[in-house]
């Protein structure tokens, strides 16, 4: 099976977690896009969705799914999103698609986080994928120095030769070289650096369920 077929399989499996009559939180990325396309097939069963990025909101709108402002939603049962890496405890690295801050915010309002990913994303130790950190633009250099002091090699994410700007008007530092043995502690430590908006470690609030696409079928971790 191709990687896209594995992503599609987990997207389809995640439909089982959608609660009829409720609002669902929806993540960002290629796996989340497959999920949105599946969600469209049952859209009459849900009230609508909260999007974790402008791209996800556009795709939901294109399918005729109502998109709610998070400020109008007090709670939602489920948030479904992909990941760049996930470990057996459900801790994740996210933000390859630069939507980490909104993803973390929407996930924080959901009672359950369902992570959908192809099996290659399952790792023993997080950190091979460069850790995204969203930063206030004026602070990118001083935050980069603080991240280097933690042992990482931060690089400003570029697009067309210029710093890439997130949906929040901020920049992303991708940090290589971190072997993340205590993701909960590192998440708190990086979030504490002045100038950091959000670190792409999702460990304090990790996934409750992981659905991983493999050649042998969809494997579940919880
Ligand atoms: C976006 C994310 C994505 O969930 C992550 O990058 C995985 O993307 P994909 O499903 O395309 O592999 O965190 O900010």
UniProtKB/TrEMBL annotation:
Organism, as annotated: Keguizhuia sedimenti
Purpose: Catalyzes the reversible conversion of ribose-5-phosphate to ribulose 5-phosphate.
Quaternary state and interactors: Homodimer.
Gene3D superfamilies: 3.30.70.260, 3.40.50.1360
Active site: 103 (proton acceptor)
Positions bound to substrate: 28-31, 81-84, 94-97, 121
Lineage: superkingdom: Bacteria
Pathway annotation: Carbohydrate degradation; pentose phosphate pathway; D-ribose 5-phosphate from D-ribulose 5-phosphate (non-oxidative stage): step 1/1
NCBIfam families in alphabetical order: PRK00702.1, rpiA
One Pfam short name: Rib_5-P_isom_A
Protein name: Ribose-5-phosphate isomerase A
Family: Belongs to the ribose 5-phosphate isomerase family.
TM regions (residue ranges): none
This protein's UniProt keywords: Isomerase
GO molecular function: ribose-5-phosphate isomerase activity
């Amino acid at each position: 099976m191709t990687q896209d077929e594995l992503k599609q399989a987990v997207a389809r499996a995640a439909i089982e977690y959608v609660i009829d009559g409720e609002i669902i939180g929806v993540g960002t990325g290629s796996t989340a896009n497959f999920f949105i396309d599946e969600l469209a097939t049952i859209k009459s069963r849900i009230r609508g969705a909260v999007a974790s990025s402008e791209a996800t909101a556009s795709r939901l709108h294109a399918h005729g799914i109502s998109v709610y402002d998070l400020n109008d939603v007090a709670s939602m049962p489920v948030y479904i999103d992909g990941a760049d890496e996930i470990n057996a405890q459900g801790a994740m690295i996210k933000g390859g698609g630069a939507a980490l801050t909104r993803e973390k915010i929407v996930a924080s309002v959901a009672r359950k986080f369902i992570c959908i990913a192809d099996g290659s994303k399952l790792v023993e130790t997080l950190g091979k994928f460069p850790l995204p950190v969203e930063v206030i633009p004026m602070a990118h250099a001083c935050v980069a120095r603080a991240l280097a002091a933690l042992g990482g090699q931060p690089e400003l994410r570029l697009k067309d030769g210029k710093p890439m700007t997130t949906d929040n008007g901020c920049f992303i530092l991708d940090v290589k070289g971190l072997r993340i043995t205590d993701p909960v502690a590192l998440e708190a430590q990086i979030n504490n650096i002045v100038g950091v908006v959000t670190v792409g470690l999702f460990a304090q609030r990790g996934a409750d369920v992981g659905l991983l696409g493999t050649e042998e079928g969809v494997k579940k971790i919880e």
